[in-house]
Amino acid sequence: MRRHRPLARPWAAGALAAGILALPVTTLSPLDVSDAEPAAATAGSATVFYYTKTKNWTNHYLHYAPDGGTWTTVPGTRMEVACTDWVKQTVDLGSATGLQATFNNGSGTWDNNGGKNYALGTGSITVKDGVVAHSDPCAGTGTDPGTSGSATVYYSTQTLGWTTANLHYQPAGGSWTTVPGVGMEAACTGWWKKTVDLGSAASLKAAFNNGNGTWDNNNGSDYTIPSGTSTVRNNTVTAGAKDPCAAQTPDTEAPGVPANVRASATDTSVVVTWDAATDDVGVTKYQVTRTGGTKGTMVTDVSSTVWSDTGLEEETTYTYTVKAVDAAGNTSAASAGAKATTGKKPATPASGTPLGTDPRKDPIYFVMTARFYDGDSSNNRGGSQHVKSGNAANDDPMFRGDFKGLVERLDYIKALGFSAVWITPVVLNRSDYDYHGYHGYDFYEVDARLESAGASYQDLINAAHAKGMKIYQDVVYNHSSRWGAEGLFTPTVYGVRDTQWSWYYDERNDGFEYDGLTVEPKSGKSYYNGDLWSTAEPTGNTCLNWGKPTGGKSAEGYTIYNCQWPNPTSGMFPKTYYHQCWIGNWEGEDSRSCWLHEDLADFNTESTAVQNYLIGAYDKYIDMGVDGFRVDTAVHIPRVTWNRRFLPAIQERVTQKFGAEAAKNFFVFGEVAAFVNDKWNRGSVNHSAQFYTWKERKEYSADDATAALEQYTYENGQGTGNQPTSTNAFLDGNTYHAPDHSKFSGMNIIDMRMHMNFSDAQNAFSNGKDSDDSVNDATYNVVYVDSHDYGPNKSSTRYSGGTDAWAENMSLMWTFRGIPTLYYGSEIEFQKGKQIDCGPTCPLATTGRAYYGGHLTGDLKVSGFGKVDSADGEVADTLSQPLVQHLQRLNQIRRAVPALQTGQYSTEGVSGGMAFKRRYTSGGTDSFALVTVSGSATYTGIPNGTYRDAVTGDVRTVSDGKLSVAAPGKGNLRVYVLDGPGKIGTDGPYLK
C-alpha cells in the first residue's frame, strides 16, 4: 500500500487545500459554531436515530452502555417512531461523553456493527447501514415543499461518490445547524433532497458534507440558496429549478458529427483521435468503424476521443470513421474518413520460461531495484526533487540501481540462500519522485531508467533463471500515476507558462515523448512535463471550471487554477477510466472505489476498458517468463473483480503460454494491508487479508460495478462468523492430507498479521496460527518482518529489535509454515531504526530505502544456495556478518527438509512456546519434523523411530511416542527429523 508515500507538491499543501480539492474544509469552521444547539438532545444526552429500511424489523431496541457505565438489560430500550424510515431513542448520559450501542429486533436478531459495537457520542446521531453520522434526519419533515417560508434543496453527488449527504445550513439572520447538519433523503440516482423551514427568511447559507468529515462549502464561500426549489450541482446553484428527479422530456436530438478525425500508424498499431462532438444533453460514447485489411469491418465503442488499434496487418491501409452517441442512443452521422498505413511488425524479443516449481520451496529476497546496486551509472536520474530532497548533496540520485546491477549481484542473493527475488514494479513511471515504481504511467513499457545495453528486463529474467532463481514482479492494478496511463487516458492540466509557472511547466515539444531517461532538449530535463499542460482549454475537456482561478495561492504567492492538480472529483479523470472520489473510510466500501492519494489515480477497475488495458499489459510480462506477481494495494479492488477478471486472466495466459503445471505454480501474492492485530480487520471481512484467498460464494449481477457493491454488502452481512474455513495448513494428528484448493481464488497473501506482530517472535507465531483456519492455504503465506512500507506494529522505521531478536524471527520464519521473505539489507540490520520513507523531504541515504550497493562491491563466487566459494572487498565483509551466516544455514536446513518447505503443521500434543510439528507426504517422500525455536518443548503421541537434529546432529530413538527437547537459546532452534539426514551445515553464531 502506498498511502504513506506522499509526493511533495511543488507548492504548499495547505495552499492547495482551499482551491484544488473539490471538497475543502469549510471556512465557517462548523465545529466552532457557538450558537448552534443539538437538535432533539440536551447536554449530557444523545438522541440516537436508527435507519429501519435495511433490516425491515417490526420492533427496534437500543441496547447500550454509557462510557464507563453498565449495559442495559437485554434487549435494551424500545425505540420510538421518529419519521419515515427512522426510529429514535434519547439517552441520558449523565457525565459520560458517549456510549457503546447495539440494536436488535427484540427477538434475538442483532446489529452489533460486525462484532465491534457502535461507538456513539452526544447530540443527534444517525446509524444507517453501519455508518455513523451526526444529524437529525427528521428535521424539517412535514414542511410543504417549495412554498413561501421553505426551501427545497436538491444536491448532486454524481461526481463525488458519497453514500450519504448532510445539509448544514443557516437561515438568513438565523443560526447554523449543529455540525454536520441534517440528513438529506435520497431522491433519485445521484441526487439528495431536503426541505427546510425558513420561517420569515427568504434564503439560507449552506454547505454539504458526507457525515465523515468531507465537505463541499463552495470553495470556502458557502452556498446562498433562496426559498423555493433549488438544485446544487458542480458548485452551481440553480434557483427556481425543476425537480431533477421528475420524468424528463425524451431526448431525440442526435449529437454533432465528430470533427478532425486523425489516424497515425506506428509499426502495426494505429492511434485514432478526434475532436469532442457536441450534444444538447451530452455525448456518452463514440463508435469507431475500421475498414481495410482481410478481417473485414470492425466497430468499437469508445468513451474518450482517442482509440488505439493494435495487432493489425503489416503494410496495410486502414480507414477510420467516428460517430457520436448520446445517452438516449441518438447517433450522429459518420465523420469524414481518416487513413493510416501500417508498417512492419516489430521484432519480438526472445522470451523466457518460468521455472514452474512449487513456490513454497523458494525463500524470497525483496529488493527495490533502483536502490540495490548500480551497474550502469548512465541511466541514473535524480528527477525534479533531486536537490530539494537532499539527494544531490549525497550524490545519490533516486534512480541509481538498475537491472545490470541486479544481474551482477544475483550471486550475492544466491550466496544468502535465496532462490526467488521480488522486485519493485518495472513499468514506466511518471511523477516527481517515482524511483519506487508505484506511479505507473505506461504499463506496456519497461522504465528505461532500469535498463541498459545487454541488461534489459528480459536479460534479468533469463539470468536469474539460469541460476535457478525466480523473478517475482511487483504489479499494480489499482492505480496509475497522477498523469494517468499512456494508451488508456492521460489528462491535460492547466499550467499557464507565465512568469509564475514556467519553473514547473515545461515548454511544449510535440516531437518529444517522455520515457523517464531521455533529456528533452528545450528544458534540459529527463522529467519533462510539457505534454501535460495546456494554455488553451483542451479538446474534450471534462474538468469543471477549467482554467479559472480558485482564489487560492501557492506558497510562493502564485495564482492557482482549477484543474491544475490531479483530483478525482473535478471531472479531470473520466469515470470510464477512473473512480471519482477520495477515500473517507479505510474500512468502508469507498476504500475499494476511491483514490488513496493524488499521486495514485485510482483506476475504475470495473470498467472493461481498464480491465483490458491492464490484462494486456501484464500479459506482456507473463510472456517474458516471470515466475509470479506480487500485487500492490490488492485490498483496494473488490474481490469479485479479482475473481471474475484479473486472476482468471493470469491463469489463462500462463496456461496458454507455458502449460497447466506452470500456471499452477505461477505465484500470485497480494498486499491486503490490515494494520491491526485482530483476526478480521476491525470486523470487516472485505478488508481482511484471508478474504482474498477465496472464490465467490454466490452469483452477482453481470455488471461488475453492481456486483462489487452486492458482494461487499453480502459478505459484510455474513460477518466474520460465517466465512469459509480450511484445514489445508493443518496436519490431521500426525498425518498429512491432500489439500483442497477447489475454492481457492488464485491469490495468496502477505501475512499481515504476523508482520504486525513481529516485534516479538512469540506474538507473531501466536497471531499467525490463529488466522490460518480462515486462509485457503496458509502454507503459501508470504511472511516478513519489515518492508519498504512498515515495520512491525505499523512502525514507520526499519526493524531495530536487535540481532538476537532478528535471529529468532528468522529461525521462526524459516521453519514455520509460509514462505520466508527478507527486505534487502536486513541480513546486516541495514538502516535499523531509520525512517523507512519520508518522500522528498529528506535524503534517501537517511532512510530505510538507502542505497545498498556500497556493501556489495568486490568479487564473489558461489557454488550453490547459501554456499560461498570465495569473496573479497566489501561483499566479503557483508557475508561475514552473524545474521548472514545464520540465514545461510537456515536456508541449507530448509532446503534439505521437505516438511519445512511444503508441510502442514500441528501443535497438538506439543508443549512449548514456539514449538510445532510439520509433515509433507507425496509419492516416495515422507518428511516429518519436530521444531522448537528458542525454548524447550515436549512432543507426545508422535511416531516411533529415529529422529536426528538438523542443527546439532543429536540422535534420539523414540519408542513411547514422546520426545523432549531442552531450550536451545534465543535465536537457536532444534529440528528433529524422523529418519532425517542429521546435522546440516556448520555451526554459526546462533545455530549450534
Description of the molecule:
With 992 residues, the protein is of the alpha+beta class. An eight-stranded parallel sheet has the order 41-40-39-32-29-28-43-42. Strands 46-48-49-54-51-52 form a six-stranded antiparallel sheet. It has a five-stranded mixed sheet with strand order 4-5-1-9-10, with no helix packed on it. A hairpin with a 2-residue loop joins strand 44 and strand 45. Helix 6 packs parallel to helix 7. The longest helix has 20 residues.
Mean pLDDT across the residues is 90
Kindly name the structural category: alpha+beta
Count, helices: 15
The geometry reads as globular
Distance between the termini: 39 Å
Helix content: 10-25%
Name the beta content range: 25-35%
| Rg | 31 Å
Largest sheet: 8 strands, parallel
Unreliable stretches (pLDDT < 50, length at least 5) are: 1-43, 142-148
Number of strands: 54
Which strand order do you get reading across the main beta sheet?
41-40-39-32-29-28-43-42
Q: Can I get a quick summary?
A:
The chain is α+β, with helices and mostly antiparallel strands.
